[in-house]
Design a protein that fits this description.
single chain, 272 residues, alpha+beta, Diaminopimelate Epimerase, Chain A, domain 1, 2 domains, 18-stranded mixed sheet, 46% strand, globular
């Protein structure tokens, strides 16, 4: 069977998009999606990506997004993925709206198309909901004590502040925190370096995907925890390995907003 796909990325966090509205692939049954995701995401043997996202219709919102990490497990939400999702919808003329609603396992998210002075959509602004701060725990990892801020952005995050994110051995520390028993459903892990009140640097060990170039929910989680601990302001530019995101935790509504670009890489066909 031939499957049409589009590869896209949000500042380096890349996903394979499959349009289930246009193509109702009979192979994509519930029990086969995890295996397909693992195959497609595998570098050298598949397409290679951080995950697979299905574009589908919804009874609750304008569209529905389903996310599968490269380990085949379904995720609740993806900030970079949802911007790419919105770009796919806009580029393929699947809406005439300036804002769309997208159903996810983390609830319904609203995305606004941000145009430049030439009336061309340049960025995507996402209402990421209200952060749920859950407290601080201590973990001894490789004989080092880590103070971990637990927070949910619809998916779980562990935020840790450090002086220099580039010196971290993230490939050793990341999986030990991700899969620690204190996180029964595992967790995303963010290491944050505060540069000033409106600028932070972030490295992410993403649940089910290892280190990624960016994480939109992780950027929101880091800003929310930083503000809560009086380390940064509500409006912050977040520097990630793949680029920049602008995060704004609105004081009045309590919603946190993420704004950034999305990029199409290529269309393809894979036979399985």
């Amino acid at each position: 069977m031939k499957i049409l796909f589009t590869k896209m990325h949000g500042i380096g966090n890349d996903y394979i998009f499959i349009d289930m509205i246009k193509n109702k692939y009979p192979l994509l049954l519930e029990d086969k999606i995890p295996k397909l995701a693992r195959f497609l995401c595998k570098e050298h043997f598949g397409v290679g990506s951080d995950g697979v996202i299905l574009i589908d219709s919804s009874r609750k919102a304008d569209f529905k997004m389903r996310i599968f990490n490269k380990d085949g497990k379904e995720a609740e939400m993806c900030g970079n993925g949802i911007r790419c999702f919105a770009k796919y919808i806009y580029d393929n003329k699947m809406t005439i709206k300036n804002k769309i609603t997208i159903e996810t396992l983390a609830g319904i998210k609203e995305v606004e198309f941000i145009k430049n002075k030439n009336d061309i959509v340049e960025e995507y602004k996402v209402n990421m909901g209200i952060p749920k701060i859950e407290g601080i725990i201590r973990l001894n990892i490789l004989n080092q004590m880590f103070y971990i801020n637990k927070i949910s952005m619809g998916n779980p995050h562990a935020v840790i502040f450090t002086r220099n994110v580039e010196k971290l051995h993230l490939e050793k520390i990341g999986p030990l925190i991700e899969n620690n028993p204190v996180f029964p459903n595992s967790t995303n892990v963010e290491f944050v370096e505060i540069l000033d009140r409106n600028l932070i640097k972030l490295r992410v060990w993403e649940r089910g995907s290892k280190e990624t170039y960016a994480c939109g929910t992780g950027a929101c989680a880091a800003v929310a925890i930083g503000y809560n601990r009086k380390l940064n302001d509500r409006k912050v530019k977040v520097l990630l390995r793949g680029g920049e995101l602008n995060i704004n935790w609105d004081e009045k509504s309590k919603f946190i907003y993420m704004q950034g670009i999305a990029t199409k890489v290529f269309d393809g066909i894979i036979e399985i």
